[in-house]
Amino acid sequence: MEYIITFTWDSDAGAWIATSDDIPGLRLESGSFDALLERTRFAVPELLALNNDSKNVYSLTFRSERRERIAL
Prior knowledge:
The protein contains 1 helix and 4 strands, in the order βββαβ.
């Protein structure tokens, strides 16, 4: 099964936030995109096991979004 994970930049917190509609309980944050990606890779199998998903192989799709306001 494919799971979609969204990374969104929170400019107020100065951090990336990972969430997923497909993985109950997933909410992680980090100031570094790469660090969050690594943390998410470790957390997802644990969360899926807690949610009684017994598959051994997972397909993860990461989507990122960052918006900034620029004044001219």
